[in-house]
Amino acid sequence: MEFHVAQILREPVGYRRDFRVSERCEAKALAPPSFPVEGQVSLLRTDAGILATADVTSVVDVTCSRCLVPAQLPVELHVEEEYYPTVDVVTGARLPAPEEPTPFLIDEHHILNLCEALRQQLVIAEPMQPLCKEECAGLCQVCGQDKNGGSCACASGELDSRWAALGDFPRASS
């Protein structure tokens, strides 16, 4: 999701442009390499560059932590990052690097690419134990059959003989 911001960089501090977006982000990092984005983006001229604010929805490809089935989960992303120009928009001269440790930069062609900031938020928003659906029954612990498709023929109380010795320990009272 790229924005040509040369005109915004020529405007006074406080100038704002709003955009409605619906497209795919192509990230340069390994995961995820591309993802859909839909929502609002606002670009605000600051004294140092452009403050990009995005409130968008996307989907993340996950594997269900109970049944191991691939699933897509919707996520809401909020990004608020300042982007710094690398080239003066009027003179074309190179600008000194910002003092921020890992700044987001506007390239030499005055293109602000929001995809990396959105990708980082997408990775953070990904659930630690994703489920394909809230009522996912998971896999049978004995035979590995997906219980969402029906019950298996295994006895529910059957234990692996290697764990039988644990049954001799007294149970903790609550």
The count of β-strands is 7
Please tell me the overall pLDDT: 88
Rg result: 25 Å
How many angstroms separate the termini? 55 Å
Low-confidence stretches: none
Number of helices: 2
Domain count, please report it: 2
How large is the share of residues in beta strands? 35-45%
Task: Please give a structural write-up.
The protein has two domains: 2-125, no CATH class; 139-174, no CATH class. The protein is 9% helix and 36% strand. The protein is built from two helices and seven strands. The strands form two sheets. It has a five-stranded mixed β-sheet. The protein has a two-stranded antiparallel ribbon with strand order 1-7. The model has no long low-confidence stretch (mean pLDDT 88).
SSE layout:
Elements: E1 2-4, H1 6-10, E2 16-26, E3 34-45, E4 50-63, E5 70-85, E6 104-106, E7 111-113, H2 115-125
Parallel strand pairs: 5-6
Antiparallel strand pairs: 1-7, 2-3, 3-4, 4-5
Defining traits:
single chain, 2 domains, five-stranded mixed beta sheet, 2 helices
A few lines on this structure:
By secondary structure, the chain is mainly beta.
